[in-house]
Amino acid sequence: PAENERARKRHHQGGQKRSIMCAQYGKPQYWDERYSRDPQPFEWYQKYSSLKPFFDKVSQKSDAILMIGCGNSKVSEDMNDDGYQQIDNIDISNVAVTAMQSRTEGRTGLTWETMDVMNMTYPDGKYDVAIDKGTMDSILCGENSTANAQKMCKEVSRVLKPEGAFIMISYGQPSNRMNYLEAPENGWTVTVHTIPKPQTGIAIPSADTQDVHYLYVCKKGNVTEEMGDAIEAPSS
């Protein structure tokens, strides 16, 4: 019994530590400190090469693209190399944005701005496609997670054109994400796809025990194209 109690306490303490660390993901200070400490490019979840087949079916190279929570990822640069001509990148960390401005100096087609996805200053209907790779996951780790995730979705929908699309890459299963994405006020039709995790992939440490990442395609307006390989998403 005593050993069982010690094991229970260790498990509880481990869960508390993970929760505390996870909660930091919603704070700008955490990301400023992280990107100052480790300025090397870091890729959450998936590289562009794995995402390109999905992007190609949803977007055109001439589309106005919004990259949410860009960090110091190379995805926008890789997309730019692949022909995308207009990608606006935002992040809550001014350190990351400043570093990316310096790293991409001389490139055309990329902009970088410090901005909160829950309170964007862009006009309505500006973008053809918005992309998120881990930002909602971070928001759901922080305080007021439900309300903030709803705010994020509302803002993303607002800045999308009437026929625009939101692509979200997440470790979160449909049972934990579709209730946010399928909210009627967003006006989205959502399909879900899976991508095998890379061997060297890394993810936010909370409930990431699956062998795949989930790619959610949220389309406004009339949906006609089929992407294939969709999994059946549970109803919300």
Give a verbal description of the structure.
By secondary structure, this protein is α/β, with parallel strands linked by helices. Helices cover 38% and strands 23% of the residues. It contains eight helices and eight strands, in the order H-H-H-E-H-E-H-E-E-H-H-E-H-E-E-E. It has an eight-stranded mixed beta sheet with strand order 3-2-1-4-5-7-6-8, sandwiched between helices. Helix 4 links the parallel strand 1 and strand 2. The longest helix is centred in the N-terminal third of the chain and has 22 residues. The radius of gyration is 18 Å and the shape is globular. The C terminus is likely disordered.
Which band does the percent of strand residues land in?
Answer: 15-25%
Query: What best-fitting shape do the alpha-carbon axes yield?
Result: globular
Mean pLDDT: 84
Spans with pLDDT under 50 lasting ≥5 residues? 9-16, 201-208, 229-236
Fraction of helical residues: 25-40%
Order of strands across the widest beta sheet? Answer: 3-2-1-4-5-7-6-8
Distance between the termini: 42 Å
Determine the structural class based on helices, strands and strand pairing.
Answer: alpha/beta
Element-level helix/strand string: HHHEHEHEEHHEHEEE
* Strand segment tally: 8
Note the main sheet.
8 strands, mixed
Q: What is the CA-based Rg, rounded?
A: 18 Å
Count helical runs: 8
